[in-house]
Design a protein that fits this description.
Blueprint (H helix, E strand, L loop, with lengths): L8 E3 L5 E3 L1 H12 L1 H4 L27 H16 L2 H16 L18 H18 L3 H19 L4 H5 L1 H15 L3 H12 L3 H7 L5 H7 L2 H9 L3 H17 L8 E2 L1 E2 L7 E3 H18 L2 H17 L11 E3 L1 E2 L27 H5 L3 H6 L3 E4 L3 E4 L5 E7 L3 E9 L6 E8 L3 E9 L6 E5 L2 E6 L3 E9 L4 E5 L4 E5 L5 E5 L2 E5 L3 E6 L14 E6 L5 E4 L5 E4 L17 E9 L5 E2 L4 E2 L13 E8 L6 E2 L4 E2 L12 E5 L8 H4 L3 E14 L3 E7 L2 E8 L5 E6 L7 E7 L4 E20 L4 E3 L3 E2 L4 E2 L7 E8 L3 E10 L5 E7 L2 E8 L14 E8 L2 E8 L9 E8 L2
Parallel strand pairs: 9-13, 23-30
Antiparallel strand pairs: 1-8, 2-10, 3-4, 5-6, 7-29, 8-9, 10-11, 11-12, 12-17, 13-16, 14-15, 14-17, 18-19, 19-20, 20-28, 21-22, 23-25, 24-25, 25-28, 26-27, 31-36, 32-35, 32-37, 33-34, 33-36, 37-47, 38-41, 39-40, 41-46, 42-45, 42-47, 43-44, 43-46
Length: 852
């Protein structure tokens, strides 16, 4: 294991990493299909006529879509070293550079009142990559003039809207220029941009995530500021955000749930294509400055699983949102927080057209960032896929390292070195955190096993013909997720139930675009059963195809290079939910009733457009969590099937007795933390095998249980719950309640409560006659407002809301109003709704009832 704290990483210039094998085929599919022909498909990047793109001087689109496309086009053109694509790039770059006016502004809105900093940000990034590939000195002068303009202009006209949310992209380009020129004003600019940005630190701490794309873009902000300032508080903030986002809305594919607005852990929530490629970009930036091998794991998981699942197999289109359990991808409403009725359709464009312009950078971005240069004149292998890298190492020795592999579908990686000189220099190898038996060989000699989640430094006098073999043995792992369901992983790959897909071409186009047949939209429906449970008492069997054409790999469910054979059975109670045109909420596992057991196939997630990736199970008696590095990161509170309010849809809040098994080598004292807060300190004695304590965990999130202190002497082995609980409150999430009238379920709350009859409804069961407090969490951004609360159809109270300042759709723990209502023993229907007597407008996040 090697510490990289003293090492500075630098990116490999665009074009110096050449994709090969299956990865090259993804880039070629983009060139052959949608990226190569996009200027003839999207009117927003049209290049001829008076109505051509505003980014080419026309009257057309002048905001983010042109820059999104150009950024991806630059990556693809130079990753492929393709002259025809470079020619396309050049006209955009030339126009942007020539558009700059005397004060430094540029772009189609230069000198205009509606100039938007945000629209320039992806174009700035495109320019930095273009320079790295071409060394066109015009870029340096252009960026210097623009950033000097910004430093002055931002003091009078600060960031707003999308620019505030995505300031990290602006800082990325400014820091790029600072690394080239060391001009001190760029430090001032980065600090100014950071101070004008949305308060992501607060969002990370409070869980006020909002828009999913903004959220995943934000993960580059704090690593960049750490890289600029060296202040480690930025590092702490970054990790708190990563942890808390996964806790509240994490997914098995490495993304978060957010079908526009960030959601919960429900398996039928969506994640957006834009967010996927932005997360990849953020991972690459974060790794450069934090040098954490787990960030490489994140990048690979997102790239190998989420990215291909968002695209059609031949890359002729994309989908706006994908679900972890996606049993249908069709035109119509699927219960997303932003659901235009076309968010689940694969096509061009798939849903709102931002993603069809932004996704182009995905595969070439990954291919161009597989390696980093190190400040000790070496190279670091960051992520793995077939490629060849050219670089200078040591004392200006030119090398090419070819990475021969079919990873992630196989576990062996061979690095073949060609060098124009024999010289000593270091080669760093990233060992994934999921691999606990990695082995490295140099020229056939075994160099030892490697610790998971680490870097290995190989320093030698390297010469042409030297070979380094990396073996990363993969194991099937099951991870408990929502409602105790399991997700199955094998190395960096996520596996899901194979569902036979029926692709039906439809005439629908979400815009007025004239789409060639090649880029048609599709309804995808299942031709086989999907509601299976896994038998966890039976073993899994990995099966690889003996002869597979990796050079022509297409991410298609009927042509997978690897699959897992398992046993499972139909669960009849896991039904189709017509309200969302998809799977109903996962049944609580272990399931007690299921059909006849059969063999089932699990295939890699990225090859499937229909899937069940979180599955119920049977065959074991209880949930037994196993830790990663003394951390349990997907703990979900057990469900009491006799709890009437839980059965009515309420979320019990309380403490659950956890049994932790351990090996204690010597007397120790450890702290037990739940979701970052210390809940207890425990003294353990040598030889103890277990201890128990109440843990405050919830059912609607992935609770993080970890142990700190003298943990070197304590090996935590497992966590389970004994069924004992103490419930102190119930919480009804608005989005899981019945939505009344024309109110809008926005995924994380209910808004659009604008007319009489709009609101939410739910049921509550009480065991005694008493006065009960209803605490309503809300937003009322326009001013004071009111709703009425009804019990069994009769008005029981008026809910008076005070104006809030956080904005619509933003809530916190301090913003609520309480009303007290008498209830008799039994079950009651509660509704909170706008009436003809109500005033103003308010959105509802949740209703909380403290328990007697």
């Amino acid at each position: 294991m090697h510490n990289l704290d003293s090492i500075v990483l630098s990116p490999i210039p665009l074009g110096d990493i050449e994709a090969k094998g299956w990865l090259l085929n993804q880039l070629l599919l983009q060139k052959k299909n949608i990226t190569g022909e996009f200027e003839d498909i999207s009117p927003d990047v049209k290049t001829t006529g008076d109505d051509r793109s505003g980014w080419l001087g026309g009257s057309g689109e002048s905001w983010e879509r042109g820059p999104y496309y150009v950024r991806g086009l630059v990556y693809l053109a130079y990753a492929l070293d393709d002259d025809s694509l470079k020619e396309k790039v050049q006209k955009w770059i030339d126009w942007v550079i020539e558009s700059q006016i005397d004060n430094g502004q540029a772009g189609p809105k230069a000198g205009m009142p509606d100039f938007d900093y945000w629209a320039m940000m992806p174009m700035l990034i495109a320019l930095t990559e273009y320079y790295d590939a071409t060394e066109d000195e015009r870029v340096i002068g252009f960026l210097d003039a623009y950033f000097r303009f910004q430093l002055d202009a931002l003091k009078k006209d600060p960031l707003r809207d999308w620019g505030k949310a995505r300031a990290g992209d602006n800082i990325y380009a400014a820091k790029w220029l600072y690394d080239k020129t060391k001009e001190s004003y760029l430090v001032d600019l980065c600090n100014l941009l950071y101070n004008q940005a949305d308060n992501w630190k607060s969002a990370y701490e409070k869980g006020n995530w909002g828009h999913i794309v903004n959220t995943h873009q934000s993960f580059k902000l704090f690593p960049l500021m750490f890289g600029m300032t060296g202040d480690k508080t930025y590092v702490d903030t970054y990790y708190s955000g990563v942890r808390n986002l996964f806790r509240t809305s994490g997914r098995i594919d490495g993304m978060s749930n957010g079908d526009e607005m960030s959601g919960d852990i429900e398996a039928t929530r969506g994640t957006e294509t834009c967010a996927v490629v932005e997360q990849m970009f953020s991972d690459i930036v974060a790794f450069r400055y934090l040098k954490d091998p787990r960030i490489g794991d994140s990048l690979e998981k997102v790239c190998f699983n989420a990215l291909p699942s968002q695209l059609t197999p031949e890359i002729t289109g994309q989908v706006y949102f994908t679900m972890q359990n996606q049993i249908e991808a069709t035109l119509g409403y699927h219960g997303f927080s932003s659901d235009g009725g076309d968010r689940s359709v694969y096509g061009t464009p798939g849903g709102y057209p931002c993603c069809i312009h932004n996704f182009h950078m995905g595969w070439p971005l990954f291919a161009s960032n597989l390696w980093f240069r190190t400040s000790d004149s070496g190279l670091l292998a960051f992520a793995y896929a077939p490629n060849a890298v050219k670089a200078q190492v040591g004392n200006n020795t030119n090398v090419m390292i070819t990475q021969k592999t079919n990873y992630p579908f196989e576990d062996s990686i061979l690095l073949k070195i060609e060098a124009d000189n024999e010289e000593t220099w270091p080669l760093y190898i990233r060992i994934p955190s999921w691999c606990d038996e990695a082995k490295i060989y140099v020229n056939g000699d075994f160099k030892g096993s490697c610790k998971e989640g680490s870097f290995v430094r190989l320093e030698a006098e390297w010469k042409s013909g030297d070979e380094v073999k990396i073996v990363l043995p993969m194991k099937i792992r099951t991870k408990f997720m929502q409602n105790n369901s399991v997700g199955v992983t094998y190395g960096p790959l996520v596996f899901c139930l194979f569902i036979e897909e029926n692709w039906e071409k439809i005439s629908y186009v979400s815009t007025d675009w004239k789409i060639p047949e090649k880029y048609s939209s599709y309804n995808i429906t299942p031709k086989s059963n999907w509601n299976y449970a896994l038998n966890l008492s039976e073993g899994f069997k990995v099966k690889r195809k003996k002869r597979y054409d990796y050079d022509n790999l297409v991410f298609k469910s009927v042509s997978v290079p690897i699959e897992i054979e398992a046993k499972g059975a139909i669960v009849e109670s896991w039904e189709y939910d017509d309200r969302i045109k998809g799977a109903s909420t996962l049944p609580i596992s272990p399931v007690s009733e299921h059909g006849k057991e059969v063999k089932i196939r699990l295939i890699p997630y990225g090859f499937a457009r229909l899937r069940a990736s979180l599955m119920p199970w049977y065959g074991k008696e209880k949930v037994l969590y196993e830790p990663d590095f003394n951390v349990f990161d997907t703990v979900v509170a057990p469900v009491d099937k006799n709890d009437e309010n839980a059965r009515l849809g309420a979320l019990p809040l309380g403490k659950y007795t956890g049994l932790i098994r351990c090996d204690v080598e010597k007397d120790s004292s450890i702290d037990v933390l739940v979701n970052g807060e210390i809940v207890d300190s425990v003294s353990l004695y040598k030889g103890e095998e277990y201890f128990s304590l109440p843990l405050p965990i919830m059912q609607n999130m992935y609770n993080r249980v970890e142990f700190k202190g003298d943990v070197s002497s304590v090996k935590i082995k497992s966590l389970e719950f004994d069924g004992k609980s103490e419930v102190f409150a119930y919480r009804w999430e608005a989005e899981h309640s019945i939505v009344l009238g024309n109110a809008n379920n926005r995924g994380s709350h209910v808004g659009g409560i604008d007319k009489a009859g709009d609101g939410i409804a739910f049921k509550i069961h009480v065991s005694e006659n008493n006065m009960y407090c209803f605490r309503i969490y809300y937003a009322a951004f326009f001013g004071d407002a009111s709703h009425d609360l009804f019990v069994n159809g009769k008005k029981a109270a008026v809910v008076n809301y005070k104006k809030t300042d956080l904005g619509w759709g933003v809530f916190d723990d301090e913003t609520y109003v309480e009303v007290f209502v008498p209830l008799t023993e039994g079950t009651h229907a509660i509704s909170i709704q706008k009436t003809n007597l109500s005033t103003g407008f308010a959105e509802i996040d949740a209703v909380y009832v403290p328990w007697q």
